[in-house]
């Protein structure tokens, strides 16, 4: 089962709704890969013993892992935290999230600065490249359990837009100009 992604509409209704354009404009895994977004579908019921997850972690150097239950009952200042996650930002490192339960949305900007909404559900592991503008929110279920992976010690520093001079953003943009016409592998 592949992840679902689409170009977002421009309305300001509840951010937890799908926000699909009418008509819907789906986004393929290949298009996400062109933006540097990587994806795997794994078995969330077996994450503690999953050999494929272990191989991904070893191959990509993800040595640190923790779990986050994100819902009103388990997170202090829940609405404020969601507001912060939904503020458009970049990171200096990859953002790696594996959805174990529930659902949520990662929104990423494409090359033309349009929003693409990626709906993650149980079993979806995505990697957002360093320097990509993005944001996160839950869907109307108001619950997600995520595994967060990092190379080395975790760094959660978000740099809110604009960040055009940030080294990670410059490197991300440079990747587009150097790799025009070079297809990336979709997982």
Automatic annotation (TrEMBL):
<keyword id="KW-0408">Iron</keyword>
<dbReference type="Pfam" id="PF03079">
    <property type="entry name" value="ARD"/>
</dbReference>
<feature type="binding site">
    <location>
        <position position="89"/>
    </location>
    <ligand>
        <name>Ni(2+)</name>
    </ligand>
</feature>
<feature type="binding site">
    <location>
        <position position="134"/>
    </location>
    <ligand>
        <name>Fe(2+)</name>
    </ligand>
</feature>
<dbReference type="GO" id="GO:0016151">
    <property type="term" value="F:nickel cation binding"/>
</dbReference>
<keyword id="KW-0539">Nucleus</keyword>
<keyword id="KW-0028">Amino-acid biosynthesis</keyword>
<dbReference type="InterPro" id="IPR011051">
    <property type="entry name" value="RmlC_Cupin_sf"/>
</dbReference>
<keyword id="KW-0486">Methionine biosynthesis</keyword>
<comment type="function">
    <text>Catalyzes 2 different reactions between oxygen and the acireductone 1,2-dihydroxy-3-keto-5-methylthiopentene (DHK-MTPene) depending upon the metal bound in the active site. Fe-containing acireductone dioxygenase (Fe-ARD) produces formate and 2-keto-4-methylthiobutyrate (KMTB), the alpha-ketoacid precursor of methionine in the methionine recycle pathway. Ni-containing acireductone dioxygenase (Ni-ARD) produces methylthiopropionate, carbon monoxide and formate, and does not lie on the methionine recycle pathway.</text>
</comment>
<feature type="binding site">
    <location>
        <position position="134"/>
    </location>
    <ligand>
        <name>Ni(2+)</name>
    </ligand>
</feature>
<feature type="binding site">
    <location>
        <position position="95"/>
    </location>
    <ligand>
        <name>Ni(2+)</name>
    </ligand>
</feature>
<keyword id="KW-0560">Oxidoreductase</keyword>
<dbReference type="GO" id="GO:0005506">
    <property type="term" value="F:iron ion binding"/>
</dbReference>
<feature type="binding site">
    <location>
        <position position="89"/>
    </location>
    <ligand>
        <name>Fe(2+)</name>
    </ligand>
</feature>
<dbReference type="GO" id="GO:0005886">
    <property type="term" value="C:plasma membrane"/>
</dbReference>
<keyword id="KW-0963">Cytoplasm</keyword>
<keyword id="KW-0479">Metal-binding</keyword>
<keyword id="KW-0223">Dioxygenase</keyword>
<comment type="similarity">
    <text>Belongs to the acireductone dioxygenase (ARD) family.</text>
</comment>
<dbReference type="InterPro" id="IPR027496">
    <property type="entry name" value="ARD_euk"/>
</dbReference>
<dbReference type="InterPro" id="IPR004313">
    <property type="entry name" value="ARD"/>
</dbReference>
<keyword id="KW-0533">Nickel</keyword>
<comment type="pathway">
    <text>Amino-acid biosynthesis; L-methionine biosynthesis via salvage pathway; L-methionine from S-methyl-5-thio-alpha-D-ribose 1-phosphate: step 5/6.</text>
</comment>
<feature type="binding site">
    <location>
        <position position="95"/>
    </location>
    <ligand>
        <name>Fe(2+)</name>
    </ligand>
</feature>
<dbReference type="GO" id="GO:0005634">
    <property type="term" value="C:nucleus"/>
</dbReference>
<dbReference type="GO" id="GO:0010308">
    <property type="term" value="F:acireductone dioxygenase (Ni2+-requiring) activity"/>
</dbReference>
<dbReference type="GO" id="GO:0019509">
    <property type="term" value="P:L-methionine salvage from methylthioadenosine"/>
</dbReference>
<dbReference type="InterPro" id="IPR014710">
    <property type="entry name" value="RmlC-like_jellyroll"/>
</dbReference>
<dbReference type="GO" id="GO:0005737">
    <property type="term" value="C:cytoplasm"/>
</dbReference>
<feature type="binding site">
    <location>
        <position position="91"/>
    </location>
    <ligand>
        <name>Ni(2+)</name>
    </ligand>
</feature>
<dbReference type="GO" id="GO:0010309">
    <property type="term" value="F:acireductone dioxygenase [iron(II)-requiring] activity"/>
</dbReference>
<protein>
    <recommendedName>
        <fullName>Acireductone dioxygenase</fullName>
        <ecNumber>1.13.11.54</ecNumber>
        <ecNumber>1.13.11.53</ecNumber>
    </recommendedName>
</protein>
<feature type="binding site">
    <location>
        <position position="91"/>
    </location>
    <ligand>
        <name>Fe(2+)</name>
    </ligand>
</feature>
């Amino acid at each position: 089962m592949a992840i679902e992604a689409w170009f977002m509409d421009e309305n300001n209704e509840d951010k937890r709704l799908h926000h699909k354009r009418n008509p819907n404009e789906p986004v393929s895994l290949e298009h996400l890969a062109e933006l540097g977004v990587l994806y795997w579908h794994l078995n969330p019921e077996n994450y503690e013993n999953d050999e494929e997850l272990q191989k991904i972690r070893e191959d990509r150097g993800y040595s640190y892992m923790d779990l986050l239950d994100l819902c009103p009952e388990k997170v202090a200042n829940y609405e404020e935290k969601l507001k912060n996650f939904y503020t458009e930002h970049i990171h200096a490192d990859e953002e790696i999230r594996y959805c174990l339960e529930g659902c949520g949305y990662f929104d990423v900007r494409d090359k033309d600065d349009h929003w693409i909404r990626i709906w993650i559900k149980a079993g979806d592991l995505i990697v957002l490249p360093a320097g990509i503008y993005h944001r996160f929110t839950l869907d109307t279920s108001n619950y997600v359990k995520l595994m967060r992976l990092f190379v080395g010690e975790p760094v959660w520093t978000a740099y809110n837009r604009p960040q055009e001079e940030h080294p990670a953003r410059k490197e991300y943009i440079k990747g587009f100009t150097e790799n025009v016409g070079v297809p990336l592998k979709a997982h």
